[in-house]
């Protein structure tokens, strides 16, 4: 088969492209700009170009795979439609690749990538094995895809954007969070919750839903994220026939929860309470505090699937994380630099909470790039509140991604809501000079746009100034 990808540099697109390439199919594609991902694809033998040129689409293409992030006015997209090439969304292809497999799907407005990569890492080191399609580059395998043709299990990150996760019919699924997000797609949180409920209803009747304690998925539920709902524990969700298992990182009401969480030299230890008893001294090396919750979710999934204590313990201890998920770039006695994908107020709050927990009393300088005009508009007050907890804030211009500008919505709009003088708006190049001058103990870069291109440059600049 000959596959052509429109937007091949996307994290989800590149995973499927790599899967087909490793399977022996011919793969090529287009992306708007070169990136570390596209460079790696080329190094692996996949042809990638950056000119929007219809003549570069192979005439013998069997299937075009595209992402909604590619603008409809893209010349190659219009060419593919006019020529009548078979064309499918990334989510449709992913759904087809999981059919007939025991699909383990991790959904939620945050925590998906870390949780799914943990599950994949643990299963990969058992006799069950697994394939995996991840939303980030897992550092254990230096890839976002894992191919195991002998395993019945496939772990996928189930993306709620554009209702993509409704293409999946999992054997086991996780829902980590349902904070309001992607309101440009859903319009309101009620509609988003209805999509999550539908996703849950598609789980195999003999399978399992691992649900964060306090989430009900009812569209009339407006309880705060993480608040315990007395009606949830043991509660059946309308239309969901799968067995339900609950987990939490805050409280003792769920089936799985951590206890005695402690920090030792940057490594986090905890005791894991499970329906079968307590597993003492579980270790997460170089982890964030919020990854404890992801680890508990991953443990619930893996133990449900039959993973034993030794395999679980070893899997968590050897898990090295995901690029851009509380990703240590510098870790010395004088300076720490952490890079994180956080782009929603709840994610930023969790990231900063972990930093304050691990490095109490240290001077924290944050560099944040807002992602999407609509998200910045919808959560401007929440962004301002959480970013104001930084000792110094360096704000970059909004990364638009798929969106057109919205009048009056800028990074300055958020900065004006922060009652502090320790805030700056600048370009990435200006940030390279400004951040070292602020004399940080800890630097954290956050955002889901192209801030990842600034990160290695800032890392080099900080090391140069040490």
How would you characterize the overall build of this protein?
The longest helix is centred in the middle third of the chain and has 16 residues, at 290-305. α5 crosses α9 (309-318), α10 (345-358) packs parallel to α12 (380-387) and α14 (428-437) runs parallel beside α15. A seven-stranded mixed beta sheet has the order 8-7-9-6-10-11-12, sandwiched between helices. The protein has a six-stranded mixed beta sheet with strand order 16-17-21-18-19-20, with helices on both faces. The protein has 15 helices and 21 strands. Helices cover 32% and strands 23% of the residues. The protein has three domains: 2-88, Rossmann fold (3-Layer(aba) Sandwich), CATH 3.40.50.720; 99-318, UDP-N-acetylmuramoyl-L-alanine:D-glutamate ligase, CATH 3.40.1190.10; 327-464, Protein-Tyrosine Phosphatase, Chain A. The protein is globular. The model is unreliable at 221-234 (pLDDT under 50).
């Amino acid at each position: 088969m000959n596959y052509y990808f429109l937007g091949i540099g996307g994290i989800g697109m590149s995973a499927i492209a790599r899967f087909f390439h490793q399977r022996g199919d011919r793969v090529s594609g287009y992306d708007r700009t070169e990136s570390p991902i596209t460079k790696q694809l080329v190094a692996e033998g996949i042809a990638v170009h950056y000119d929007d040129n219809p003549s570069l689409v192979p005439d013998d293409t069997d299937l075009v795979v595209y992402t909604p992030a590619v603008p409809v006015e893209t010349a190659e997209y219009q060419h593919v439609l006019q020529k009548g090439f078979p064309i499918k969304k990334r989510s449709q292809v992913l759904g087809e690749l999981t059919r007939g497999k025991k699909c383990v799907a991790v959904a939620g407005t945050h925590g998906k990538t870390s949780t799914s990569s943990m599950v994949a890492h643990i299963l990969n080191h058992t006799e069950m094995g697994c394939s995996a399609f991840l939303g980030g580059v897992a550092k254990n395998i230096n890839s976002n895809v894992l191919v195991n043709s002998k395993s019945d299990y496939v772990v996928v990150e189930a993306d709620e954007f554009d209702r993509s996760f409704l293409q999946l019919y999992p054997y086991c699924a996780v829902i980590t969070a349902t904070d309001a997000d992607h309101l440009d797609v859903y319009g309101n949180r009620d509609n988003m919750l209805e999509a999550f409920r539908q996703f849950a209803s598609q789980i195999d009747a003999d399978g399992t839903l691992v649900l964060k304690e306090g989430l009900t998925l009812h569209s009339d539920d407006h309880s705060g994220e993480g608040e315990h709902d007395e009606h949830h524990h043991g509660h059946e969700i309308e239309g969901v026939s799968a067995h339900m298992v609950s987990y939490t990182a805050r409280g003792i009401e769920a089936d799985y929860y951590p206890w005695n969480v402690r920090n030792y030299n940057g490594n986090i230890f905890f005791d894991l309470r499970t329906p079968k008893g307590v597993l003492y001294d579980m270790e997460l090396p170089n982890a964030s505090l919020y990854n404890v919750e992801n680890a508990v979710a991953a443990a619930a999934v893996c133990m449900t699937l039959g993973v034993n204590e030794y395999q679980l313990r070893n899997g968590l201890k050897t898990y090295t994380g995901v690029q851009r998920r509380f990703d240590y770039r510098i870790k010395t006695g004088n300076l720490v630099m952490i890079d994180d994908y956080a782009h929603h107020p709840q994610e930023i709050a969790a990231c900063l909470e972990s930093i304050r927990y691990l490095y109490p009393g240290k001077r924290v300088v944050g560099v944040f790039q807002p992602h999407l005009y609509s998200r910045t508009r919808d959560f401007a007050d929440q962004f301002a509140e959480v970013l104001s907890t930084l000792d110094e804030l360096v704000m970059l211009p909004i990364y638009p991604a798929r969106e057109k500008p919205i009048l009056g919505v800028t990074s300055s709009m958020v900065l004006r809501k922060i009652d502090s003088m320790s805030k700056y708006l600048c370009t990435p190049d200006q940030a390279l000079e400004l951040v070292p001058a602020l004399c940080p103990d800890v630097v954290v870069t956050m955002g889901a746009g192209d801030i990842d291109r600034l990160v290695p440059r800032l890392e080099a600049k900080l090391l140069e100034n040490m």
